[in-house]
Amino acid sequence: MQMLYNSDSYVVVQFDVPAPTEGTTPRRGGFEIVDKLARKEIFIEGAVAESFQRGVQSLVQEGPNEGAIDDFIAGFTALAQQPVVLH
User: How far, in Å, CA of 33 to CA of 76, rounded?
Assistant: First the structure.
C-alpha cells in the first residue's frame, strides 16, 4: 500500500498484491480513491485501474497542476458508492 496523492479533496492509495509464488498468478492490485468532500470511496482494478494510471501519468508529465489532477480524479469518484466509515 502506497499513498500516491493527497489533496484537500482526494486521497489516492495504490495497492499492489504480489503473486503467492513466482510464476503462478500475475500480480494484482488497484487504486483506492477517497473523495473527502463527498465522504465516499471507490476501489478500481484491472482495465479501469490501468486507464486511471495512464491518465495520471499523462497529467504529471504536463507539469504539477493540482486542479487538473483533481478534475481527472472526479471523473472516477462519480462512480463511488461506498461511504467512508471511521472505526
Answer: 8
Count of domains observed in the chain: 1
3-class state of residue 32 by DSSP: strand
How big, in percent rounded to 5, are the helix, strand and coil portions of the chain?
35, 35, 35
Which residue reads 482495465 in cell numbers? 47
pTM: 0.81
d(CA 75, CA 12) in angstroms, rounded, equals 13
Domain that holds residue 66: 2-83
CA distance 14 to 85: 19
pLDDT tens, residue by residue, 32-87: 999 999 999 999 998 999 999 999 999 989 887 889 999 999 999 888 888 887 65
Buried b (16+ CB within 10 A) or exposed e, 29-43: ebbbbbbeeeebbbe
